[in-house]
Amino acid sequence: MSKISIIFTQTNGKRYAVFKVNSMFASESFWAGYHDLPRHETRVEMHPGDEEIIIAEVKRKIAEAEAAIAKHEEFIQSPAETHTIEVAGYKVTIHFEPTVGYRWQAQVFIPAPMKAEANLHTMLGEHLDEWREEGDRFSLSTIVKDKEEYFSTVKAEMEKVAEELEALRTWRSQPTQQYELPGNVSVTIAPDDRWSRYEADVVAPKALIEKAKACGLKLGQRTWGSKDNHWAKWWCPLRDEAEAMRVLNELRSEVEEALATAIVAQYSI
User: Fold this and answer.
1) What integer pLDDT is reported at residue 266 of this predicted model?
2) Largest CA distance in the chain
């Protein structure tokens, strides 16, 4: 099948050349970076005797396009590349394969435990929920022009992730703090598993909480849940150690107030 056909026509004394370009040849030329072929079904006015000039010009463009296609095919046959980056004990893989238009298909693979531990919302400009789950790992695919530049971007991003992971590990390694308040009230303050903050877990006798509620005391105004038939529980997040100490002191004061309060009379009217 011919790559380009030329039809010479004459209308009202004017002569024209009409070009019919093979669609596959046009597509291959385009992706090879050659954009000087005549457009399909384009009609251009010509002068008598221009036929040989036009034919020669088309032959030249076909030869240039074929050379570009051959060069592009060499690029497509380039070997794939795989790189591995160490990120806080995890192995992140970046895979490159040549694709059309002298571009590269890039895939980044991160282990599922790394995604879970990192607690990040986005990575490489994409929300982590958009990453594709593949068994024990997640992948992100994109098309890039410059694989070296993209690899540098991935590497820089992973260096930040490694720093955040190490910081989170240091945070989570803090010891749990246990406090025993009067009235068999226990308070546990520990670093949050997923955020750089603390959390407080409080367990108190249900009888004490019910008395505080009945007496309108601050202790009873907190949102208590049930641990079992005899114990109530309360939880709250804490920004930092200073807030943890403030809440602990408030709880101590509220518990002491509840213990010092007695119901001396009750009427139902």
Assistant:
1) 82
2) 121
Cβ neighbors of 238 (< 8 A, separation 6 or more) are 189, 197, 198, 199, 200, 244, 247
Task: Tell me the CA distances in angstroms from 139 to 107, 115, 133, one per residue in order.
Answer: 7, 11, 7
Residue 1 has pLDDT above 70, yes or no: no
Half-sphere exposure of 36 (CA within 13 A, CB side): 13
Please report, to the nearest 10 degrees, the dihedral formed by the alpha carbons of residues 67, 68, 69, 72 taken in order: 130
- φ, ψ for residue 264, nearest 5 deg: -100, -20
Could you give the CA distance from residue 122 to residue 130 in angstroms, rounded to a whole number?
A: 9
Q: What is the separation of C-alpha 163 from the centre of its chain, rounded to a whole number of angstroms? A: 17
Spatial CB neighbours of 71, under 8 Å, sequence gap ≥ 6: 32
Provide the whole-model pTM.
0.69
Judge whether residue 122 has pLDDT over 80: no
Question: SS3 for 137?
Answer: strand
Contact 227, 184 (CB under 8 A): no
d(C-alpha 267, C-alpha 45), whole Å = 108
- Asked if pLDDT for residue 181 goes beyond 70, the answer is yes
- Residues 84 and 181: their CA atoms lie apart, in Å, by 52
User: Does the structure show a pLDDT above 70 at 24?
Assistant: yes
DSSP reduced 3-state for 173? coil
Taking the C-alpha atoms of residue 78 and residue 66, their distance in angstroms, rounded to an integer, is: 19
Assigned token pair, 181: 């308040």
Amino acid at position 26, single letter: A
